[in-house]
Design a protein that fits this description.
Order of helices and strands: HEHHEEHHEEEHHHEEEHHH
CATH class of the largest domain: Alpha Beta
Structural class: alpha+beta
Largest sheet: 6 strands, antiparallel
CATH architecture of the largest domain: 2-Layer Sandwich
Number of helices: 11
CATH topology of the largest domain: Beta-Lactamase
Number of domains: 2
Amino acid sequence: MSEAGGARPASVAGRTLRVLEAFAADHWELTLSQISRRSGLPLTTTHRLVTDLTAWGALERSPSGRYHIGLHLWEVAALAPRGLRLREIALPYMEDLYEATHENVQLAVREGTEVVYVERILGRDAVRVLTRVGGRFAIHATGVGLVLLAHSPVQTQQQVLAAPMEGWTPLTITRAADLRRILADVRRCGYAISDRQVTMDALSVAAPIRDHADTVIAALSLVVHAAGAQPRALAPAVVAAARGISRALGSPAARRPPASIAFRTTRSATGVRPN
């Protein structure tokens, strides 16, 4: 709510964050007026904050007079423990998985009830994906999301199960009972399959990544063309890569000999019943 609307004025930090939140993937470059409108702040306040943010390097001004996120802000954000360090450790394993498959490889973490993608490698002839590094997506529809939700606190799971679930295709999980059963399958099998839940041409196989306390902090996925996909054949490679990353992060469980993977059919693993 804008200050002009009579709401209690936010702190300086709060107003600054509202300026930064005005930027998005589809609004990555904005005029001062657009920032003011999208943040809900008066133009004079916006001008003052934008000037300070530009001087610090959080924003940069293009020759056209528009503003975009600055490099200094990216440098600071890269220090997040679930960002740079995780990416640096995971990249060699992601590259190995890519070289073995030439398919899309993605690394994601959970933020609340959403998935945030922190790294990805795109295959040249691989299926198109809707994600981007730094982008968010609903947790109930993607392979990485199902893995992260299956290993999230019960309170988070209940929050997702109680809320309406958006559907992108006829196969997207939108019923709480179906999702609850799938999450149990993911915990039992050690991997997740999202079959055409986001687009009708893509299927993903994902596995959990654990830290030194054996807490699931991220998920790794392989995204392939759904037509002709064999998730049972892909799962061991994804699980092995995720275990390698977990081992590098100090996971005790990842250092033990791996248990056999409990494979299920594509349909039952995704909770989608045949038509």
